[in-house]
Specification:
Layout (H helix, E strand, L loop, with lengths): L4 H19 L13 H11 L6 H12 L5 H21 L9 E2 L2 E2 L1 H4 L2 H19 L8 H15 L4 H10 L7 H26 L4 H28 L2 H4 L5 H5 L4 H5 L1 H20 L6 H12 L3
Antiparallel strand pairs: 1-2
Helix pairs in contact: 1-3, 1-4, 2-6, 3-4, 3-9, 4-6, 4-9, 7-9, 8-9, 9-10, 10-14, 10-15, 14-15
Length: about 300
């Protein structure tokens, strides 16, 4: 029977959406004092009703590969998505990428205001670590602590935030291939790598499998960024749900700009081949992950 990736992704994204909706409700939790309605509305605007949910789905699919598929995995996956959503809210701000559209809708600072968008991003980020500490994620506090530490490192100065800084510093400047690879592995790849590691770790996968999935995360992280940069060159705002052509306009350092389209496509095919090799050991059990890797390479938005 043919695996229907689109249907599967829609189902898994819906599961994440349900959890996010529950996490972002107006019920005040223990040790909270209040949930200001405008801030909560901005957080919901930035996190709900759209998005591929690729990062949390990778957590879910990797955990399932090693035998775990439950509400605790969904919580851990949703924590990662909260971090990703915070980063988008802040990336869209005028001081960063200055975008008016995200997922086909006004960005948070356009729908509300800049100050509210900053606070919404801050609150989404901090909520993520509240969620990852939940006992339902894993009954071993050492596991939850390690997940929290790895997520903070993937998102922070040595990961996504640091990569964003390198990206800003690279505007209108020449950068070597090695420098671009480093900034992209931090800016985009770190959270994707974490997603694959977290799923394997949650399910108690052996060290060899954990390292294999870490490499798989590295490979699809680079592939995702290359495909994204190609789409910025070749796609349009209607298909993407956001502005295109902004990398060249801002003088961003990208491998597409360094290599050109043809070499970039060849590199994407190499990465897809490596991902297939990494997953071959699992035979048919990794069909969803293999399909996701193919989707990342060939996606149109």
């Amino acid at each position: 029977m043919t695996f229907d990736l689109k249907q599967h992704l829609t189902k898994q994204a819906s599961r994440i959406e349900t959890v996010l909706d529950k996490l972002l409700n107006d019920a005040v939790l223990d040790e909270e004092m209040a949930r200001p309605p405008r801030l909560l509305a901005a957080m919901r605007h930035g996190a709900l009703n759209g998005g591929k949910r690729l990062r949390p789905i990778l957590v879910m699919e990797t955990a399932k590969l090693f035998g775990r598929d439950d509400d605790g995995v969904l919580l851990a996956a949703s924590a990662l998505e909260l971090v990703h959503c915070y980063s988008l809210v802040h990336d869209d701000l005028p001081a960063m990428d200055d975008d008016d559209l995200r997922r086909g809708r006004p960005t948070v600072h356009r729908a509300f205001d800049e100050a509210t968008a900053i606070l919404a991003g801050d609150a989404l980020l901090t909520l993520a670590f509240d969620v990852i500490a939940n006992e339902d994620v894993h009954d071993d506090p050492a596991v939850r602590l390690r997940l929290s530490r790895e997520l903070s490192r993937a998102a922070g100065i040595g990961g996504m935030a640091g990569g964003q800084m390198l990206d800003l510093e690279s505007e209108h400047r020449d950068r070597s291939e090695a420098e671009i690879r480093t900034l992209q592995s931090m800016k985009t790849g770190a959270l994707l790598r974490y997603a694959c590691r977290a799923g394997a770790f949650l399910a108690g996968a052996p060290v060899a499998d954990l390292e294999r999935m870490s490499r798989f995360g590295d490979v699809i992280g680079l592939a995702f960024q290359l495909a994204d940069d190609l789409l910025d060159v070749e796609s349009n705002p209607e298909a993407m749900g956001k502005a295109t052509g902004k990398d060249a306009e801002a003088g961003k350092a990208t491998l597409v700009g360094l290599w050109g389209v043809e070499k970039t496509r060849a590199e994407l095919n190499k990465l897809l081949n490596e991902s297939e090799t990494l997953l071959a050991v699992y035979e048919g059990r990794a069909v969803s992950l293999a399909a996701i890797a193919d989707y990342i390479v060939s996606r149109s938005n």
